[in-house]
């Protein structure tokens, strides 16, 4: 940690902006007087433990994630007419399962919460049918400001907002990620088609990523296509849940 602090001082002298994750690690260390942490895995073990101090750390981390996010002006989306506020991820920071969508829509922007519109309600229904309490997973988006007319975020906007998503990924460190639609799929595997990749595991950076259709896509289907899409998504969610159970058999979604 002393080496890390010296390194950081050096960067500050050179006016190099610190990665959010290092800033947060230092904030956490100072706030909780953490002395002997030699690796990010060691820190994660402490953060994820089941005791009141770890719980306070998780609350602290979440508040910091929101604080950094609210100060973010790294792309122009925050100043577009369609964006009235930033929409942070939400849920359980201890969860081995994270769901990632594209970006906030009208309802999410209005309420400042992810997946609360019609698509979000469908997502909650799918989770409940699988016996998963929505509060026991972490749900976020690739971009945190609503794009104009709900258009797909531009690559430069996704890249800019990756600072925020990476912070969530670092401190939540999920084992399994459900990528809801093409945008999060391409975040983890660029130049991919959701039509070709859905239902197929991607293992990257220590995460098992299961790409599936975005709930808004299901809502746009009709007739036989609707039935097929529903079954595809159901199958993908079941695969993701089975993987979490294999990797973290002790975790309860209730
Ligand atoms: S979309 Fe992300 S990067 Fe762009 S301003 Fe909003 S929070 Fe910052």
Architecture overview:
The chain has a domain at 72-247: Uracil-DNA glycosylase-like domain (Uracil-DNA Glycosylase, subunit E), CATH 3.40.470.10. Helices cover 52% and strands 10% of the residues. The chain is built from eleven helices and six strands. The protein has helices at residues 2-13, 20-32, 40-48, 52-70, 106-111, 118-129, 155-172, 182-188, 194-197, 215-220, 223-247, and strands spanning 90-91, 97-101, 138-141, 176-180, 202-204, 207-212. A six-stranded mixed beta sheet has the order 1-3-2-4-6-5. It is globular and about 60 Å long. The chain starts with a helix and ends in a 7-residue tail after the last helix. The protein binds iron/sulfur cluster.
How is this fold's topology laid out?
Layout: H1 2-13, H2 20-32, H3 40-48, H4 52-70, E1 90-91, E2 97-101, H5 106-111, H6 118-129, E3 138-141, H7 155-172, E4 176-180, H8 182-188, H9 194-197, E5 202-204, E6 207-212, H10 215-220, H11 223-247
Helix pairs in contact: 2-4, 4-7
The protein binds iron/sulfur cluster (SF4).
- Shape label: globular
Main pleated-sheet profile: 6 strands, mixed
The CATH architecture of the domain at 72-247 can be given as 3-Layer(aba) Sandwich
Bound molecules: iron/sulfur cluster
**Content-based structural category:** alpha/beta
The CATH topology of the domain at 72-247 is given as: Uracil-DNA Glycosylase, subunit E
Oligomer: single chain
The CATH superfamily of the domain at 72-247 is known as Uracil-DNA glycosylase-like domain
């Amino acid at each position: 940690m002393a080496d890390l602090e010296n390194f950081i001082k050096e960067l500050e002298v050179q006016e190099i902006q610190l990665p959010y994750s290092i800033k947060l690690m230092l904030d956490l260390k100072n706030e909780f007087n953490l002395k002997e942490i030699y690796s990010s895995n060691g820190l994660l073990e402490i953060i994820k433990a089941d005791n009141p101090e770890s719980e306070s750390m998780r609350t602290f981390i979440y508040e910091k994630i929101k604080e950094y996010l609210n100060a973010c002006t790294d792309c122009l989306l925050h100043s577009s007419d369609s964006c009235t506020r930033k929409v942070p991820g939400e849920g359980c920071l201890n969860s081995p399962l994270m769901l990632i969508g594209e970006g906030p829509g009208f309802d999410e922007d209005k309420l400042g919460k992810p997946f609360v519109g019609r698509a979000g309600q469908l997502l909650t229904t799918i989770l409940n049918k699988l016996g998963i309490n929505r509060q026991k997973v972490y749900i976020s988006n690739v971009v945190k400001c609503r794009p104009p007319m709900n258009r797909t975020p531009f690559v430069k906007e996704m890249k800019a907002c990756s600072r925020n998503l990476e912070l969530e990924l670092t401190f939540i460190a999920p084992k399994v990620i459900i990528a809801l639609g093409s945008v999060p799929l391409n975040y983890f595997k660029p130049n991919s088609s959701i039509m070709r990749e859905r239902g197929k595991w991607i293992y990257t950076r220590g995460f098992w990523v299961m790409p599936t259709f975005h709930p808004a896509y299901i809502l746009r289907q009709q007739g036989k296509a609707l039935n097929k899409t529903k079954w595809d998504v159901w199958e993908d969610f079941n695969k993701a849940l089975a993987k979490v159970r294999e990797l973290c058999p002790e975790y309860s979604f209730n």
